[in-house]
Amino acid sequence: MSDTIFHVQIVTPSGGVVYEHGATHVRLPGEDGYFGILAHHADLMASLGTGKVEITESGDTRVELALCNGFVQIRDGGVKVLAEAAERRERIDVERAREAEARARKRLENDSNIDRGRAEAALQRALMRQLVARGN
Q1: Could you tell me which of 22, 83, 106, 130 has the fewest CB atoms within 10 Å of its CB?
Q2: Is the pTM of this model over 0.90?
Q3: Are residues 22 and 54 in the same domain?
Q4: What is the tens place of the pLDDT at every residue in 93-130?
Q5: Cα 102 from Cα 108, distance rounded (Å)
Q6: How many structural domains does the chain have?
Q7: Where are the beta strands (DSSP E) in 59-129?
Q8: CB-based burial label for 112 (10 Å; 0-12, 13-18, 19+)
Q9: pLDDT tens for residues 13-22?
Q10: What's the CA gap between 50 and 70, in Å, rounded?
């Protein structure tokens, strides 16, 4: 893996800048699967799904975030992620994520008048937050 450092920024509408630091590698959840970014990556814009973001900073320090849908722009040697929601592993409230999972499952099982896509997205988000919080 390259040791060249590039700038990474992750921004959400409600949380502002969630992450901003130099990195040597970033792994993002694309719509069609995960992909990695190293320094000097070709310019790119891509949509992101719900998943775990893994960032390797200098000295092999790793940062993990739960991310929910968005876009990534790789340009001029930097990476900018605009996400609906993103949360650093150490800030995830596991109990709140479990409660969100239970609510989403209940809505999917019991309520025929719901927006299924929205309820399924809420379930995915809750499960991903728990997965990232566990360090998996």
Answers
A1: 106
A2: no
A3: yes
A4: 999 999 999 999 998 888 777 788 888 999 999 999 99
A5: 10
A6: 2
A7: 62-75, 78-88
A8: exposed
A9: 998 999 999 9
A10: 8
